[in-house]
Amino acid sequence: MTTYFLYIDPSSGSYLIQMIIAAILGSLFFIKNIWYKIKIFFGGKKKPADEPTENEL
Amino acid sequence: MAMQPIEPLPSSYRDNAGFVFKHNNKIYRLINENYFGHYDMLLQSGLYKELTTAGRLIKHEEIPASSIEIATTSNTKIIFPAQLPFISYPYEWSFDMWKDAAIVTLKIVQVCLQKGMILKDATPFNIQFYNGRPVFIDTLSFEKYTEGNTWIAYRQFCECFLSPLLLMYYGHRDMGKLFVAYPDGIPLEITKSLLPLKSALNIHVYMHVWLQSRVSVQTKNKKDEVKDFSKQKLELLIKGLLEFVISLTVKKNKSTWDDYYTDTILGNNYLEHKSKLVKEYIDQINFKTVIDLGANDGYFSMLLQEKASNIISVDFDSNCVNDLYKSIRKNNIKNIVPIVATLNTPSPAVGWANEERTSLTERLKADLIMALALVHHLAISNNVTLANISDWLQNMGEFLIVEFVPKADEKVQELLLHRKDIFTNYTLQHFKDCFALHFNILQEETVGTTERTLFLMQKKYV
User: What residues pair up with B337 in beta bridges, in sequence order?
Assistant: First the structure.
């Protein structure tokens, strides 16, 4: 069945989904960060520093 | 002189913070008193300066209403933004144009949050390609951010940017055109129905599309609970979206039009001579703005790039347009706007009363129109008559450089290979007759060793 959201604010439900996504992303970035540190520990390259240029987006 | 009342442009009815209006052919923006707080914060927090210096937000100057002799009713401010030579719409963008527009929007949100502000909406119509890069043009989209709030425009961002990007990424690179049917955003339900199931294996696609459309259905009758979201969480959300969008790269499908100039059997002599002729023609005329119809990879647009103030390069092949866009970005070329459009069915007027976004024909105006190796495609592939083509072009600009490719040409023979030749009128003489109705032919030359003819014409005023 298709639900049409004619009478509700398009952003309702937004709170819950943004909470969930922030939580998932929080753990994702946490793991990524640890993985990155492990890589550096074993002699991996450091990320180059972000140098903003005039043409950068 | 009497004060003139001002009318918002048809595209500017949604926001009660103010509106855009046209006065003496210049674009201005009026700001209502209810927005003054946010506007002051935009300027005083340093956000405006940071974003305009980085080229992400359009510059403006505040001017007194009296200076342009217009009647304003209440307490309002008038700003005069940098004037854009051409307005393109998202359904005319190639993949990387969409992607860069999304990246700029998200980066603006990141800078906003550092300054305690947020974007209240996230639509690609707020982005224009100006000076060779995507620029945010809606100065009234900035609002004070209240700690604990979620991003009000999150769903809009997903439907307006993620939906088209994912449909192009997982489906076809032309899927951005679907936006003409859904200019307020492609609903997640629709996007979900068109994406392959494997896309849900990507955690970002799953969260922003699958999960979001499900959660919205479940919570549709509940009032939002206490707001205990945080700026830190919001920053995570934006960072996640940004990294995901950056990771999307479109697979390049090779099309007939790739390497058209390098591979084509017409050979170097043809292209060399044609370039020489075009250069000769443009030396005879005065022009600032150019429209290059059927621009392919932008070879001829680039040729005119030093002499023109602004060039709109139109092609129906989104691969070519995307390559051109990437080379514009790479070489920091500021005066070419590439757009994807099928010329026999150009973008229509859409939105409220069919007036919100104008048709492509209405927007395509310039001093010089180039239609190189184009007419035979419109005439033979799409059955557009030569009289129709001449009619359509005469409203576009003053000068015309147009190429006629005769029936004997191998490319036209290719077009006729699988269809009946009903084009008895398709001759050089008939072409000249049709165009002579609206144009004076200033010059005509045969190109290289081919039987193709290149014309320089000027509009006739009867």
Answer: B312
